[in-house]
Amino acid sequence: MNKIFSMSRKDVLTFVIFSAVVLLMPIWLQPFGAAYPDLMQKFAIFGILAIGFNVLFGLTGYLSFGHAAFLGVGSYTAVWTFKLFSMNPIPALILAVIMAGLFALAIGYVSLRRSGIYFSILTLAFAQMSYNLAYSVLTPITNGETGLQLELQDPRVIDSAFGSTSDGSLPVSNLFGLVDMNGIPGFYFCAVFLIIGFFITQRIFASPFGMMLRAIKSNQTRMNYTGFNTRPYTLTAFVISGMFAGLAGGLMAVTDPLAGAERMQWTASGEIVLMTILGGVGTLIGPVVGAWLIKYFENIFSSFNESVLHNLFAFLPDGVEKFVVEITSMFVGEGWHLTLGLIFMLVVTFLPGGMMEGFRRIGSLFNRDGGDKAKPNEKTPAPAPAE
Amino acid sequence: MTTENDNIVLHVADVHKTFGGLHALSDIDLQIEEGKTHAIIGPNGAGKSTLLNVVVGRLAPTRGAVVFDGQVLTGKQPHEINQVGVARVFQTPEIFPDLTVLQNVMIPALAKRDGSFTLNFMSSLADETEIRDEAIHMLEDVGMKASMDMLAGSLSRGDKRRMELAMCLMQHPRLLLLDEPTAGMSRHDTNTTIDLLKKIKERGMTKVIIEHDMHVVFSLADKISVLAGGRIIAEGTPEEVRNNPKVQEAYLGGAH
Amino acid sequence: MDAIFLQFLNGLDKGGAYALIALGLTLVFGTLGVVNFAHGALFMLGAFCAVTLRKLLTLEMVATDPEKVTAWGTPLEIRTPYVEAWFGDFGAFMVDFSVPFSILLAIPVMLVIGVVMERGLIKHFYRRPHAEQILVTFGLAIVLQEIIKHYFGANPIPQPMPSAVGGAADIGAALGMDPNVIVYPWWRLIYFAFSVVVIGAVFAFLQFTTFGMVVRAGMADRETVGLIGIDIDKRFTAMFGLAAIVAGMAGVMYTPLLPPDYHLGMDFLVLSFVVVVVGGMGSLPGAVAAGFLLGILQSLASMTEIKAIIPGIDQIIIYLVAVIILLVRPRGLLGRRGVMES
């Protein structure tokens, strides 16, 4: 066996189960009413975004508040590739990842000169700069508030060289003219990238490089006095996670060829952080679970409106019903963000380790009676895959 | 710079360090011989830690230079200084509390083998069997093999220091700097550490020890420099220093 | 030259707002050691105190005038705000001056909000990592702005300034230049003066009262102050309340300049953080100086002459300055060394 692909049995098992779960989504999501393509595409795309972010925040502890900028760069690049060259998603994605990587290299090179809150604010400043520029001077590239869209008169030089003709409607991204990138095929296309991305992160987690990143999070001074130049490590992690974000942005454009500046706003960066935290920072699966949960509940909660609520609470006496609907309506539909903010506060306050920590706690509750009072003395197993 | 004999590994040449107007170090000239254990003692505030920080590049000297094995260390980054073969044990243990003891000990060996940066994110830690075995062996040596899967942060203070020492030893440094390696340890732990350091000495590793504890100093040191008020007031073998009236006045007088 | 002077003036009011928010952020950070991402929301809540008061003051009673008839043949409706009906001219005066009056409402409201926020949430995060402080206050900021959105809608709600100061001052003429060249709205001038007064009051409070002295000592060395038996926590809670009041008042007075909407706080927060970092984390004079400096720089950058040279510079100048400062002088203009350099 090639040394590059040596994986522990546990890792292989995790990978196989993960892939199966992702690929079988159209089946097991049925009972949840979430098995429709648009939503599943989102699951895959935001999963990629979250695991990429986790490589930076989860492993090195550097909290970037500007990752949405790379998402935006990926989307713009992909749409431009569609406009100029071809509707084939492959070149669009390659260019999106490269561009996002270059941006991440430049921003990371500067931002990583500082750590802690200063790093967060530097990334935030860069993201806001990108956002403001996309809305103003860069309008020729970004098409400002309208957003960048496909047009009939786009050159698409490669496509026209292969003699594709326009039928008067806007083209759809397609894989070599065989499959259109929407609906279920679009989902599977994204899902494949999610699985590849998961594999790569799994490798990073199990590599010496991953251990170095954890060590940097744990004690940067010791790293330096141990002979490591930490900056290239953090920069690599930053660029990798930026490229994941670029890939996610590219896939957004593949499934829906439109790119807008609001994708780069810092609240969007906040959402990425949120997914990662909710699932469990620094764990392999957690961020993906976080992304899925948020996108799932966003979908459910946003679709609720007052009339749905009235139906839901119709069994209550009139006055009570009205009151209940009044209260609950704050949290659904337009108010979904309120729910999100509350969940976020609760998770950070009571469960900073996220869902994965929660599962572990519940698990340990069943394994040992009476919880973890014996913690200081117990031999804590390694969280890292050294074994 | 003065000429020196071939045995000198570390030469602290005419170093001055001022903070604002305060002279923390003046006219420090130290020559550390290969394979020897050199202790630096002195009362609190004598400038011992400042001197060590100058050597490892944490502080830049106002004047003078630090030369290690023919290379000027002054102005180098901490990781560069480590890569040329200088390792340091801190006064308060600097370890990786969120990693296991075994990982803590493996990391320095990777730094030694792979240099200050390698892009090895597609290889697997599980394949590093050689370094792993070496790390386990080292933990056996310091008597910590039993706790190798524990998180380092949950170790006792004494164990943290022993582990930090093991981390430095994994790199087989040419020069080991120890900043009060037994501070805050029980008598028993202190003795274990002394034995451990004696064992290292047999391997011919050069050591610079900063220490308060005279028991430790006189059991280990080949040569002692006494620092007071930022100057070296005496230097010599333990016997010479013990009998030096200046030292007795400045330092030992009150202590004994 | 005149144009530059005018832009300089234009930067003062915005700079005042930045300085007031940054001052509160720094107070909270310096005393409690907490990085508060919800501080912008306090500014926004202050602005909505003004909106609320105006809404209340302009509640109207509807009477019909039997004598007169509209073109449709229905009786003419006469709408009078209750306060005018009850208090006559004084009522009309209150409606006209609703924004300045809102300060009286904002002070108790913001104090309560601040204290509840600190006791209920922030307190539990003193000893937690800064990343978690950022995250939980970020969540809180979202919650607060969504609540406001629920009750006040998503659209900006313009607030008129009192008609007596609705005009503009011909500052150029007052300074002996040509008239009608440098004309500056009164309210902006008032805002600037207001911010200077509030900042001065906060500094005087910290400088000359025992309370302030204890707080300053606590900012310098919390442990020692705790050791000499002073209950520093209670004072820090009060400090948080004070920071909330300052942010709230800044928000109230800013409403005539910028119609408030629910995400006003977030917009100002990002900028204010940049201001704090530029001024130097933990330095009160730094926060104030950087606030005005960046406000003025932003205003200068939006001159057409400058935009012609570097397009889009007005959009990014503040962030650009922040990046440069952080790289060249990491502790900011007036910051102490090593604050939060983990």
From TrEMBL, chain A:
**How does this protein lie in the membrane?**
Multi-pass membrane protein
Compartment(s): Cell membrane
Q: Which Pfam families match?
A: BPD_transp_2
Name the principal localization, coarsely classed.
Answer: membrane
Q: Check the record and name the CDD domains matching this protein.
A: TM_PBP1_LivM_like
Q: List the transmembrane segments.
A: 12-31, 43-63, 68-86, 92-110, 117-138, 186-213, 233-252, 272-293, 336-355
Q: Which InterPro entries match?
A: ABC_transp_permease (IPR001851), LivM-like (IPR043428)
Record keyword ATP-binding present? no
Ordered alphabetically, the record's keywords are:
Cell membrane, Membrane, Transmembrane, Transmembrane helix
Q: Which residues form the signal peptide?
A: none
Full protein name? Branched-chain amino acid ABC transporter permease
Automatic annotation (TrEMBL), chain B:
**The entry's keywords:** ATP-binding, Nucleotide-binding, Transport
Alphabetized Gene3D superfamilies for the sequence: P-loop containing nucleotide triphosphate hydrolases
Tell me where on the tree of life, at the top rank, the source sits.
Bacteria
UniProt-listed InterPro entries: AAA+_ATPase, ABC_AA/LPS_Transport, ABC_transporter-like_ATP-bd, BCA_ABC_TP_C, P-loop_NTPase
Keyword Transmembrane listed = no
Q: What is an example of a Pfam family matching this protein? A: BCA_ABC_TP_C
One annotated GO molecular function is: ATP binding
Keyword Cytoplasm belongs to the record:
no
Family matches, as SUPFAM superfamilies:
P-loop containing nucleoside triphosphate hydrolases (SSF52540)
Residue ranges of every copy of the ABC transporter domain listed in the record? 10-254
Its name, as the record gives it, is ABC transporter ATP-binding protein
Q: Which organism is it from?
A: Maritalea porphyrae
Organism lineage string: Bacteria, Pseudomonadati, Pseudomonadota, Alphaproteobacteria, Hyphomicrobiales
From TrEMBL, chain C:
Topology versus the membrane, per the UniProt entry? Multi-pass membrane protein
Which sequence ranges are marked TM in the entry? 15-35, 42-63, 101-122, 134-152, 189-215, 236-257, 269-296, 308-328
Main localization (coarse): membrane
Pfam families associated with the record: BPD_transp_2
What is this protein identified as? Branched-chain amino acid ABC transporter permease
Which domain of life does the UniProt lineage start with?
Answer: Bacteria
Keywords of this entry: Amino-acid transport, Cell membrane, Membrane, Transmembrane, Transmembrane helix, Transport
List the subcellular locations.
Answer: Cell membrane
Protein family membership = Belongs to the binding-protein-dependent transport system permease family. LivHM subfamily.
